[in-house]
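Example (one chain per record):
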Amino acid sequence: MLRSLSFIVLVACAHSARPNPTSPPEPAIAKVNGVVIPLHAFDEEIAKITERGAEIPQDRLARIADNVLKRLVEAELLIQAVKQAKIVVPQRDIDDGFREFKDRFQNEEHFDAYLRSGVVSMELILGRIRDRRALEMLLVPRLKVTREEARDFYDKNIRFYTELAGMRVSHIPFKLPDEPSALELSAVNERVKQALAAIAAGENFNVVAVSMGDAPSQAGDLGWLGEGEMDPEFKDAATKLRVGELSGPVRTRYGIHIIKLVDRREDRVLPFEEVEPQIIKSLENKQFFTARRQLLAELTPAAHIETFMPAAYQDPEREERSPAQDEKA
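Predicted structure:
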């Protein structure tokens, strides 16, 4: 079933917002079937929006506050529904979700930097994963994507599953000023000769790109490039190469390049069997949000909900507007 980490669902906010039973009572922003949503949960969400420092008109601030409160109430309703269904998320599901989340980062260092930024804690990440998975388990009876539906989506959107013709190219770039002097041009040409000599002597192309070129972060690899993604001089030189072959120095508006053609491909339609899992996952994710809306539409009328919007976030002019005017605003 779904493991995607879409954090549009604010279940985690309500989960983390539950007060410690040993703490003294704090002001509430709402009560849902007797369960308190503390004011600080609301304040934290508002702060994320207003911390940029821009002045927000009172009527717009009131609408933002309404939306934040609505999402917190909905999140609490969903938590209560999960609890009533006695759903327990297996640890392996949390572990799988955490691995998927970490895979979004280029490497371990980037993930550690994200944690150090203070934007989110490990506890909150795992809580979000657990709450999302619990909701998925609750909605399982409402979620079902057949192979026929996936095939129909594939047939109607075949353009999304077509790899266009192109070349996979690596290069070693050497920067030049817009109008290089003879001395500058000579110095760069000397570096190009040294790089070509190193490759001819058996040095790895990507190693030379990092150690001797001017774009070490790319390590030479430009990936797959289509017809309109290359400078004309660059494309002409790459087109003439056989797979695995190197060019001589190629001058473009960006400088001088040594080009290596890594691979070449024609237009290719990815077979349905190859993309079926990702199509099913995408359709399941769409169904998930539809089912979530349906569940909330069922839970809300039957719930006892009290809200305590602070006066600072109320729109004094709202009573004077008609519903149509408020919707337009």
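Caption: The longest strand covers residues 255-265.
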